[in-house]
Write a structure and sequence with these properties.
With 333 residues, this protein is mainly alpha-helical. The chain has helices at 2-7, 13-31, 38-48, 55-77, 94-116, 133-137, 139-160, 167-181, 186-196, 206-231, 236-263, 266-269, 275-279, 284-311, 320-330; strands at 126-127, 130-131. The protein has a single domain (2-330), classed as Orthogonal Bundle (Farnesyl Diphosphate Synthase). 71% of the residues lie in helices and 1% in strands. Strand 1 (126-127) and strand 2 form a beta hairpin. Helix 3 (38-48) packs across helix 7, helix 10 packs across helix 11 and helix 14 packs antiparallel against helix 15.
Length: 333
């Protein structure tokens, strides 16, 4: 169904994904060139450059392009040069402007996986089809590689973002990255997740599941979309639409993740399935069953698509944001 819908627009989404992944991975490799202490950098590179869908990075790039396209077309229609704000150093390529931030997000995401897999948290042996970081480098280095990646992400965002971005916008992006990562985002969501792990089905409700996932998974996905727009100096309406689209996509992404834990296999997923049930996690599937979760996903897909149409953020000829929403929902891993 996904392919048929995307082909209807003549937009080659598969090639798009391939090209964008390469763009992000090449830049990540540049940022992770080995230095001293070698074992630390090897461990960081092992987890960042080990595959992964790069969905969050692609969302940032797509949001930056969406806002850029709308600014350029408005500037052509009006007499004032709305792109001037982006352009002090002559570079207005939205991909180049958003790429350091997209890479920073992938680093934060990778570090959260490294820490999540540690024996003191989920205790997993397999990630992206390979042994987890601590299985290869040991727990101490895995912990420190996660810490290193977290700070390297901030360093890259601040040091490598184009000087054409207004300092106030960059500061706002750096602040929101800290919030998305910290106690009001991923760390807080992870702690709530732990608090409800082991609970019977009647021991938690949907609001609890939503709140766990809004922090643990949703915060970084929301930030990925919003930051792309903010770096391009998007207006309040565009940023609010991107933020809401991020909420929808983040929720849908996690419902899919919960379903895949029940329906997926280890080889395709590249991680161990069945853990949510085994450890009694507060998930969508445990709260409302497989059919309930699938129905909720259809609702989220319709809501996200309607929002994109209303906000006119997506490119008519290449509806990338809509395709990324469908990808987040219909993926097999
Ligand atoms: C963030 C400071 C800090 C510490 C980490 C452990 C932790 C705190 C948070 C847990 C975050 C976590 C692991 C959430 C799960 C998110 C999730 C569904 C990950 C899988 O994402 P995919 O499918 O993975 O995009 P790939 O491998 O494709 O990149």
């Amino acid at each position: 169904m996904l392919e048929a819908q995307i082909h209807a627009t003549n937009f080659d989404f598969e090639s798009y994904l391939k090209e964008r992944r390469k763009l992000v991975e090449d830049r990540l490799a540049d940022y992770l060139v080995e230095q001293e202490p070698a074992r630390l950098w090897q461990s960081m590179a092992y987890s960042v450059l080990s595959g992964g869908k790069r969905l969050r990075a692609m969302l940032t790039l797509a949001a930056a392009e969406a806002v850029h396209t709308s600014i350029v077309s408005n500037a052509r229609g009006a007499t004032m040069g709305a792109t001037a704000a982006l352009n002090e150093d002559g570079s207005e390529d939205p991909l180049q402007i958003a790429l350091p931030c997209a890479c920073a997000i992938e680093m934060v995401h990778a570090m959260s996986l490294v820490h999540d897999d540690l024996p003191c948290l989920d205790n997993d042996d397999l990630r992206r089809g390979k042994p987890t970081n601590h299985k290869v480098y040991g727990e101490a280095i895995a912990l420190l590689a996660g810490d290193g990646l977290l700070m390297l992400a901030n360093e890259i965002l601040i040091e490598h973002t184009s000087k054409s971005v207004a300092p106030a916008n960059l500061l706002a992006v750096a602040l929101e990255l800290s919030k998305a990562t910290g106690p009001s985002g991923m760390v807080g969501g992870q702690v709530k997740d732990m608090e409800f792990t082991g609970a019977e089905e009647d021991g938690f409700d949907i609001a609890t599941v939503e709140s766990i996932h809004a922090g643990k998974t949703g915060a970084l996905i929301r930030f990925a979309l919003w930051s792309g727009g903010k770096l391009m100096n998007g207006n309040a309406e565009q940023l609010a639409s991107l933020h809401r689209f991020g909420e929808i996509l983040g929720l849908a992404f996690q419902i899919t993740d919960d379903l895949l834990d029940v329906t997926g296999d280890a080889q395709t997923l590249g991680k161990t399935p069945g853990k949510d049930e085994a450890t009694k996690k507060a998930t969508w599937v445990r709260a409302i069953g497989i059919e309930g979760a699938k129905n909720k996903l259809s609702e989220m897909e319709a809501e996200g698509s309607a929002l994109l149409e209303r906000s006119m953020l997506d490119n008519k000829d290449a509806p990338v944001l809509k395709a990324l929403l469908k990808y987040a929902i219909h993926r097999k891993k």
